[in-house]
Amino acid sequence: MHRLLRHLQSLFRVEPGRPALWAGLRASISTALPLCLAFLSTVPEASWAGLTGLLVTLADKGGSYHARARVMGVVTVLGSLVGMLAAPAGRTYWVDASLLLLGVTAANFARSYGETAGSVGGQLAVIFVVSLGAPTSSLRETLLRGGALLMGGLWAMALSLVLWPLRPYRPARRAVARVYAGLASAAEELHTGTLDGATASQWADGLQRHARIRPEIERARGVLAATRRGRPDESRRGEHLLVLVELAEPMVALLSSLAEAMQVVGRDPHMNATRERVARLCEAFAAMDLWVARALRQERNEGMSAPPRLVLRPKRRQPARMAAPPVRQGAEGPLSMHVAALLARLREYAGVAHETASGLLFGDPVSQRGKGTVKGLPKAPGFSAWRPLRDNLHPDSLVLRHALRTGMVATAALGLTRALQVGDAHWVSLTVISILQPHAGSTEERVLQRTMGTLVGASLAALIATTVHTPPLMVAVISVLTAISVALLPLNFGAFQVLLTPDYLLMATLSSGDWTVASQRSLGVLIAGTLALLGTWTLWPSPERRRFPDAAASALRADGKYLQQLATHRSGTEPAVNEERRRLDQALLEAESSFQRLMTEYRGPPQHLEPGMALLTYTRRFALAVTALGTGRFEDRTTSVLPQQLAQRASDSLELLARALQERREPPPLPSLALPRTSGDPVLSALLERVPRQLGILHGAVARISEDPALR
């Protein structure tokens, strides 16, 4: 019951954001214009251009124009080829079934090259199955179909990449703007928590939200790298954006360190001056980040106010560079010095970001401070076409299992529906392909979404088909439904599915001339959903509870490696430390994604999931404490804050916990950790004391996981 309720909640959940109105309008034009031309030319095969027009538009996931053109071009060219290859082949059942098995399996195995390639494979599978289900009777019809598919894709590419305003750096600017909007939100939360004296749990929740900036930084890096690779010469815009992306990394670490320090400060009345200093700077930092985000989205300086001067008090304008607030020695002592050092470093990075965004907006060159901040993006490793295939050609590969499962279930659906003589058998196979996902929980959720969406959409299509009997009106209806469905896709997949289903059905009606085609889909989608569930439960089932311990173990090991890097380097902002922190954040995100999938699959009482939740929470808290230790060092210190012996022992303890998770056994007792004496530095003392305490909590979580079969 808990599982069903979670799936129902996901069906009606509305994501934050706004409808993608322009994307919906573009998809509508991409689909409707080829259909209009097909009607005017009286060539039925020309209507296939509407299919690739829609699919190529849906394949456009954003990013650099170079990357978008590559993905859309692959769907266009390969889509026309697979459409022609499948067109004359679906006349006999055995040829039809054999090609369906091979084609669908190969298309889904494209996921070996990543999610983008998997999405392209899904688009090609749709074209392949639809073309297989409508066999041609002559070579001329086959060539016409291939040409129509090619022209529809080229039209969608031209509309998206040429007729729409072509600004190569717009995707990168918007990606970086999202990073700085996230930094502004984090600074505002820190400002509020500092003034209100937030509790430990509130600080922990805030730090958890800080971690969400990491995916945005990685996404901005990827978009910017693809944009720069697609440009023959570097430009000032590329240099400015590179500096802004690389500045975000240390600023996130400094905000987390300030949050840790303010958690130590708490509501101590003797620390009011320190709290006020931090709150004022965070308010100024948030205002600066918001201005940077607006400047990146604005793209021109017309109508954009002059760069704001970073302020220390609300409603007052100060010099462009934030002057350091006076530090009172005495009562606050080392704690005040520690916070002042963090504030000074944050001011330094904020100043560079401020002048870099100003230079980007007003066309000035990158400053010397900005050039000295980054050395350029790391070079991408050489691409190997065969390595991803070799890595996934083994029985335990999740990608290979999913590809084989999809091909086999789609072929079984074809045979069953033909035996039962249920409507269009290829429609059922196509529905199976769209439902099956690599993970069981995602498949169950998609079954519910697709079943309800198709039932409602098919009913809507049947109603339209009985009231609209002329092709021009049908094309108009398809245009409206396409625009609305694509616009609602960012908000709710269920609404997208409900409105997109009549699109496919009505396009099939236009192509075949059969006005009763919409009424045959309801039983077909029920068969497809049932077969998809049976396939995901019986063909190489791999429940997430078996994968989660391995993902959590990887995160624990990454914690240990990050700790060792900090112990062997003088500063927490050196490139080697930054790279290890990136790997740790990625391991944590993968473990958290695995746990989210586990929650969708789990059938038992929710309290049994508590050990896994505690494990992830304190793995991230341990990483934040280590980050605070690294950014809290002073330049004039001659010894490491974190002794290598302590780091090695703590790392060994994390390795013991990781092995226990992977071997599904109770962990051995943790060795004792001798903490260094830092009585003169209360913040560092508090941070160091968290190391053995959080290790103990992690040990308890791993022990509870070993005792509970729900997570083993």
Give a written overview of the molecule.
The chain has 712 residues and is mainly α. It contains 26 helices and no strands. It has helices at residues 2-12, 21-41, 48-59, 65-86, 93-109, 115-132, 139-163, 170-196, 200-210, 213-229, 236-265, 272-298, 333-362, 368-373, 387-392, 398-420, 425-435, 440-467, 471-488, 493-512, 521-538, 544-568, 575-601, 610-631, 644-663, 682-707. Helix 12 runs parallel beside helix 13. The longest helix has 30 residues, at 236-265. The chain starts with a helix and ends in a 5-residue tail after the last helix. Residues 230-234, 311-331, 376-380 and 634-640 have low confidence and may be disordered.
Shape, per Cα inertia axes: globular
Order of helices and strands: HHHHHHHHHHHHHHHHHHHHHHHHHH
Number of helices: 26
The stretches of 5 or more residues where confidence is low (pLDDT under 50) are: 230-234, 311-331, 376-380, 634-640
What distance lies between the first and last C-alpha atoms, to the nearest angstrom? Answer: 22 Å
Strand percentage lies at under 5%
Mean pLDDT, nearest integer? 77
**Beta-strand segment tally:** 0
Portion in helices: over 70%
By secondary-structure content and strand pairing, the structural class works out as mainly alpha
The major pleated sheet works out as: none
How many whole angstroms does the radius of gyration measure?
A: 29 Å
Structure characteristics:
712 residues; mainly alpha; 73% helix
Brief rundown of the structure:
The protein is mainly alpha-helical. Helices cover 73% and strands 0% of the residues. The protein contains 26 helices and no strands.
